[in-house]
């Protein structure tokens, strides 16, 4: 195969009952994740389902599996993460909601090529484009929108990085605020008496039944695929499993179905074509499809930093399991990064303990690399960064990226045309 042992799967998770997916626990209680499904949750649900079906725990522990963050599927419409150059007007001119547009648009690669991390940083480019919007484009938009063109002024814009946008009519991308959650009240049960505990009442926000999320899951060394085959779960490249998501599954919460479908080889080759175009332009923009972090040793122990690797060598130790390390080598040098910081938390059911909290860049963050020494089939090696992740942290469903040679968001002029064509409130 073109990528050796590697197998990529499209994943769809559909909730069958209200689901408690905790994002934060504080003085005001628990807050539910409403607009995404962490890759760790997807991977953990899959491995737990296989364990329940009798798969050897040692075999599960040795799997090299990684997943991107799951994006919602809203009324059949797919979603994308906003990147650092995505802006959202505070005042919307359409009935459906608030829309996002990009400051770079069809000049994405052309303008990113100029960034060198010193004379021109990503932040400086962002400031320059905001000034150009106010100076050059607002007068042009006034011919089409009149005074409403002022809604595109920088003072009336907010950043859309890390937010979720759903693909609406045509190419319009509307911000998705998350699924509507319901309040679920539970009573703690005493394990000793088998009855309710006094004064132990918990209220949770819960995602509704019917909510759907999509992600990409990669079986780096093919072992997961073999396990699914051995247990009769994979037929014609497809599998469907009952899984549990989040808290309270023993009380009926978090029951879901996970559907996997193998990505055809032709689609993997499309990723190679994108990688080849990026290499030809000597700039590699990587958009985060999962939180991005780097671990480093210090006097205080293992510390995390919200940053991608300064130097990225492909294939790395994580990629060697694919069996295609012999096709060449590729080194990338980090020029700059732009993103929003988040904290990745988790809980290990196996250990019964919280996982290490990791400071990371949120989904949609931009990591800009320049091409260094290269030999062999560099495009295929670069594609490994998208399919399998940047490094070993991909095993924790971190450091997943997409090679972005085009801007998924339209420029302001295109948004104006869509507003005029679709009607305004």
What does this structure look like?
The protein is α+β, with helices and mostly antiparallel strands and 425 residues long. Helices cover 22% and strands 33% of the residues. The protein is built from 8 helices and 27 strands. Strands 1, 4, 5, 14, 15 and 16 form a 6-stranded antiparallel beta sheet that branches. Strands 20-21-26-17-27 form a 5-stranded antiparallel beta sheet. The protein is globular, with a radius of gyration of 23 Å.
Which overall shape is indicated by the principal axes computed on the Cα atoms? globular
User: What's the average pLDDT?
Assistant: 90
Largest sheet: 6 strands, antiparallel
- Domain count: 2
- What's the N-to-C terminus distance? 53 Å
How would you classify the helix and strand content by structural class? Answer: alpha+beta
Low-pLDDT parts are none
Sum up the structure in keywords.
425 residues; alpha+beta; Alpha-Beta Plaits; 2 domains; 5-stranded antiparallel sheet; 22% helix; 33% strand; globular
Write a brief structural summary.
The protein is 22% helix and 33% strand.
Give the arrangement of secondary structure elements.
Blueprint: E1 7-15, E2 22-26, E3 29-32, H1 39-52, H2 57-61, E4 65-67, E5 71-72, E6 79-81, E7 86-89, E8 101-102, H3 108-112, H4 122-145, E9 157-159, E10 164-167, E11 173-175, E12 182-189, E13 196-206, E14 212-219, H5 223-230, E15 238-244, E16 255-262, H6 265-280, E17 283-288, E18 294-298, E19 301-305, E20 311-314, E21 328-338, E22 341-344, E23 347-348, E24 353-354, E25 358-361, E26 366-376, H7 378-388, E27 401-403, H8 412-422
Antiparallel strand pairs: 1-14, 1-16, 2-3, 4-14, 5-14, 6-10, 7-8, 7-9, 10-11, 12-13, 15-16, 17-26, 17-27, 18-19, 20-21, 21-26, 22-25, 23-24
Helix pairs in contact: 4-8, 6-7
């Amino acid at each position: 195969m073109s990528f050796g042992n590697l197998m990529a799967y499209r994943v769809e998770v559909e909730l069958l009952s209200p689901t408690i997916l905790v994002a934060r626990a504080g003085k005001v209680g628990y807050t539910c994740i409403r607009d995404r499904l962490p890759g760790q949750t997807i991977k953990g649900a899959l491995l737990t389902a296989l364990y329940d079906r009798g798969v050897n725990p040692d075999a599960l522990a040795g799997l090299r599996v990684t997943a991107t963050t799951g994006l919602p599927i809203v009324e059949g419409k797919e979603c994308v993460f906003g990147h650092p150059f995505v802006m959202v007007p505070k005042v919307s001119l359409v009935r459906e909601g608030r829309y996002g547009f990009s400051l770079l648009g069809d000049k994405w690669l052309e303008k990113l090529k100029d960034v060198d991390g010193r004379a021109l940083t990503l932040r400086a480019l962002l400031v320059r484009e905001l000034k150009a919007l106010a100076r050059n484009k607002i007068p042009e938009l006034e011919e089409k929108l009149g005074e409403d063109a002022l809604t595109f002024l920088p003072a009336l814009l907010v950043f859309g990085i890390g937010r979720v946008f759903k693909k609406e009519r045509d190419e319009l991308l509307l911000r998705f605020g998350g699924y509507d959650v319901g309040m679920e009240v539970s009573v703690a049960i005493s394990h000793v008496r088998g009855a309710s505990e006094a004064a132990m009442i918990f209220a949770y926000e819960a995602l509704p039944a019917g909510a759907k999320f999509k992600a990409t899951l990669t079986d780096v060394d093919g072992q997961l695929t073999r396990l699914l085959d051995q247990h009769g779960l994979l037929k014609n490249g497809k599998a469907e499993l009952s899984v549990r998501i989040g808290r309270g599954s023993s009380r009926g919460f978090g029951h879901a179905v996970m559907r996997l479908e193998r990505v055809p080889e032709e689609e993997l080759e499309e990723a190679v074509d994108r990688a080849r175009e990026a290499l030809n332009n000597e700039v590699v923009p990587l958009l985060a499809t999962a939180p991005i972090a780097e671990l480093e040793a210090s006097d205080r122990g293992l510390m995390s930093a919200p940053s991608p690797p300064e130097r990225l060598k492909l294939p790395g130790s994580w990629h060697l399991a694919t069996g295609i390390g012999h096709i060449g080598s590729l080194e990338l040098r980090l020029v700059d990064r732009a993103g929003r910081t988040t904290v990745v938390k988790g809980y290990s059911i196996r250990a019964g303990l919280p996982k290490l909290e990791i400071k990371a860049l949120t989904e949609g963050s931009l990591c800009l690399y320049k091409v260094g020494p290269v030999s062999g089939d560099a495009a295929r090696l670069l594609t490994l960064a998208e399919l399998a992740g940047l490094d070993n942290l991909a095993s924790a469903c971190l450091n997943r990226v997409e090679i972005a040679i085009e801007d998924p968001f339209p420029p302001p002029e295109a948004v104006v045309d869509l507003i005029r064509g679709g009607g305004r409130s």
